Amino acid sequence: MPADVIVIGGGVIGSSIAYHLLDEGFPGRVIVVERDPTYARASSNLAMGGIRQQFSSALNIQLAQFSIAFYATFDRRFGLRGAAAAAFRQRGYLFLVDASNRDRFNARFERQRSLGARLSRLSTADMARRIPGLVLDDIEFGILGPDDGYANPKAVLHGFRHAAQSAGAEFVAAEVTALRRDGHRVHGVVLNGDETIDGAIVVNAAGPYAARIATMADLDLPVRPVRQHLFRAYLQAHTPERHPMIVDPSGVDGRQEDPVAAGDRERSIVACARLVERRRG
């Protein structure tokens, strides 16, 4: 089963790679290998859905700037509506800054602004006015990216995969158990221990399992899976205010989840990717 490009991992990144290749006129055969087509435990399916420009590296900032414009037209581009819509909410991304991360965020702020990211620095008084009830006892200031926000990760995943398939990408449900190599050159994959696919280009888009794939090529890729705990809490009453995604120095972040259908209750989503030693009210 020869291919021109083999993408390992059919989540948002892998599906996006396949879609963009074919949408921009790549004439070859693109095969995407995804071990679990239900995506039941895939990070793309279970993600928080944040979309932001506020990164440390110039490359990530520039990639995110492209993404912001792309997600702003995502539903229209892929024909998603109603409950199936990605619904990119550009309500902003607010990082809370305390003494422990002040220097890092000051440097990030200048780098991001120099690359054209639209950001503002908020005092604690500014944030208290914008978000009533936010506890800011040990916070010194905040960095808000007003163009950033969040989308429905399940809809984004569905949209990219469907678009990639419509453009001609072939999805194979299997696990990559080895890479086919000729010295240092990778020229294919082994699936489930026996079936093989040869390809001129093999892309590692395995997300948290990318390091495992890299070891098959004798590479040490510094990607380590981190367990994220995500909680959805129903609100007792309707809240008319719409807040940005909020990221606390402790590693906890949260956002609102808008009702989709009439009668749906409002929810807040809170996530933590590591053990939290302190709590914020």
What does this structure look like?
A seven-stranded mixed β-sheet has the order 5-6-4-13-14-15-12. It has two domains: 3-49 and 155-215, FAD/NAD(P)-binding domain, CATH 3.50.50; 84-148 and 227-272, D-Amino Acid Oxidase, Chain A, domain 2 (2-Layer Sandwich), CATH 3.30.9. It contains eight helices and 15 strands. 33% of the residues are buried. The longest helix has 15 residues, at 58-72. The protein has helices at residues 12-23, 43-46, 58-72, 74-78, 102-114, 124-130, 153-167, 210-215, and strands at residues 3-8, 30-34, 50-51, 93-97, 120-122, 141-145, 149-150, 170-173, 176-182, 185-191, 195-204, 229-234, 245-247, 252-257, 267-272. The protein is an alpha/beta fold and 281 residues long.
Give the class-level CATH name of the largest domain: Alpha Beta
Low-confidence stretches: 275-281
The number of distinct β-strands equals: 15
Can you say what the CATH homologous superfamily of the largest domain is? D-Amino Acid Oxidase, subunit A, domain 2
Helix amount = 25-40%
The CATH architecture of the largest domain is 2-Layer Sandwich
Task: Using the alpha-carbon principal axes, give the shape.
Answer: globular
Largest sheet descriptor: 7 strands, mixed
The ordered H/E elements are EHEHEHHEHEHEEHEEEEHEEEE
- How much strand? 25-35%
Number of H/I helices: 8
* Rg: 21 Å
CATH topology call of the largest domain: D-Amino Acid Oxidase, Chain A, domain 2
Q: What is the first-to-last residue Cα distance?
A: 56 Å
Mean pLDDT: 92
